[in-house]
Amino acid sequence: MFKAILLSQTDDKKTRAEFTDLDDSRLPERAVTVDVSYSTLNFKDALAITGKGAVVRNWPLVPGIDLAGTVAASQDPAWQPGDAVVVTGWGLGENHWGGLTQRQRVDAGWLLKIPAPFTARSAMVVGTAGFTAALCVMALQKHGLQPGDGEVLVTGAAGGVGSIAVALLGRLGYTVVASTGRPQEADYLRALGAARIVDRNDFSQPGKPLQKETWAGVVDTVGSHTLANACAATRFNGAVAACGLAQGGDFPTTVMPFILRGVTLYGINSVFVPNAQRSQAWALMAQHLDPQQLDAMSTEIGLSEAIAYAPKLLAGAVRGRTVVNTAR
């Protein structure tokens, strides 16, 4: 028997979240069994647990879009018992049983070896949020953005993706401007690498279709009016990497930034990414993220606490990354 969070749907289509005991017979029929030591609690996980978002595609489901641990058994020769592995994306916690459990079975092609110097825990401080942030940074780099080209805006900077984007860009030498609605987090964001802090309210309302050229690049985790205003204030031939919808899934803008300033908007999907690109992103983080910074941006909770903790995350009351210790 092992502990897991299990989501089921009631007759009136409500979500029931339970912290319960399961056995191996309940696990999916997949090639590799993993003893999960750490998982995470992300915005998407919180939506699934609370039933406030249409995240779950199959019922019942173990939520959790990330997991890290060791291989317990494998039917695939690429993986051996004892291998330290990490999984992010691939529909985990949406279409397939996910990481908020002490044991899981996954496809062999979903696994990556945890790269040094990461441990299972620090890999989950990174998790999907860090992986997404790294993909955003890689998109800006591919576009040609160089340190010294100008200010790079990160929206939702005190959240999981935003925190790691600030840290990664700062370590790479970019001038980072962190947008947040939590002024009490200013010192935290400066310690991560932000050069200055701006109020998210400056971006969250409808704005002009073209605004003063300000940003050389943008990492946007928020969507809606914030993304529209970020695009409108991006400099000639600048780039915006969009990866989130914390404010909303709408995009109330015009074509003006794109046809008059040549702004490029990159959409970042972190779920279905080839393993070669995944390895690049993890290598970038392994080289440039400071372990002490990762500790500073993380809060650890037990698996038994995740259900009660989810509403806090949706309310924007959680700083940085939430790591879930499955032993607790």
Walk me through what this model shows.
The protein is α/β, with parallel strands linked by helices and 328 residues long. 29% of the residues lie in helices and 28% in strands. It has nine helices and 15 strands. The strands form three sheets. Strands 3, 4, 5, 6, 7, 14 and 15 form a seven-stranded mixed sheet that branches. β9 (175-180), α4 and β10 form a beta-alpha-beta unit. α2 (120-143) crosses α3 and α2 packs across α7. The model has no long low-confidence stretch (mean pLDDT 94).
Shape label? globular
Spell out the helices and strands N to C.
EEEHEEEEHEHEHEEHEHEHHEHE
Proportion in helices: 25-40%
Rounded radius of gyration (Å):
20 Å
Number of strands: 15
Topology:
Elements lengths: L1 E8 L5 E8 L9 E10 L1 H8 L15 E9 L9 E5 L14 E4 L5 E2 L6 H24 L7 E4 L5 H12 L3 E6 L5 H7 L1 E6 L15 E6 L3 H9 L1 E9 L13 H5 L3 E4 L7 H14 L2 H6 L1 E5 L3 H9 L6 E5 L3
Parallel strand pairs: 8-9, 8-11, 9-10, 11-12, 12-13, 14-15
Antiparallel strand pairs: 1-2, 3-4, 3-6, 3-15, 4-5, 5-7
List descriptors:
328 residues, alpha/beta, 7-stranded mixed sheet, 6-stranded parallel sheet, 9 helices, 15 strands, 29% helix, 28% strand
